[in-house]
Amino acid sequence: MYGPEEILAFAKLTDESDHVSTIFFPDIWASLDSIELSAAVLTVTKRVKAGSGVLRPLEHDLNTLARRLGTVQYLSNNRFVLGVGTGKPVTNPSETITRMLKMIDEIRNAIPTEFKGRTVSPPEVFVAALRLGIAKRAIHNANGLILNFCSPEYASNLVKNLRLAIGSGVIDSRTLVCYIKIFFSKNVDMAKRLLIEEFANYDANPQYHDMFVHDGVADDIRSASRSLSSKRSLEIPDSLYEISLANPSVEQLQKLVNKFRTAGINLPCVYPYFSPHDETSFKTDVMKQILEIE
User: From CA 158, how far away is CA 278, in angstroms rounded?
Assistant: First the structure.
């Protein structure tokens, strides 16, 4: 949870860091708009890119969306990145993916190449891909893929299978992103609680549950979830710390990021969560530590 002043202040910090290239903002229904957030951040920064992570294009009007993206590109010297996803599970996922990929091409074509003497480029596009099927289809239409809340082992297997399916040349020319959710609070038990609750929420999604089963952590998630009602200090199974962390040291976080890099993720994206009760000064200290991660 971040206030508007915090969002802009932290963006300025990332812009001054040599270790950060891109900021992604989630686009959640009934929450803040990711394009508007990105536009605000791009206004107060000079180097770092910013964009949606992820927006569901099929829920938007094509021409309106293209105009908005073109405007942000014009104002930011082409530093917006468009992360997209299909949204909620549907009865015909293949058809939905086809429609989304078609709309991506239509958005690119609808954005003018020049406006008032300034070159405007379609934004880089990153497609959310949890499974091999959508990854194989999307990677040809995108600059990269976005994985979320998975283990380094899961990411590694997906990258290996992609290489086998479509060749290393295509994979090596793309950016592979993975959100690494990290939970912080001045209260240690609160950080652990936030981590467990996030796992439990995602485990309720059939696609993520299947992934957690594949990783062998589904039972540990259920066990940790039951502990939320206990009055004792929360204990998190070590298996979950292979995917996420609560109040990690810089060294612990660097070690986890390195595992994702080894797995083939060339843009690991640290996704910091905070308790709503934590002060800006605490968040700022944590953000400065995160910016030490290479």
Answer: 36
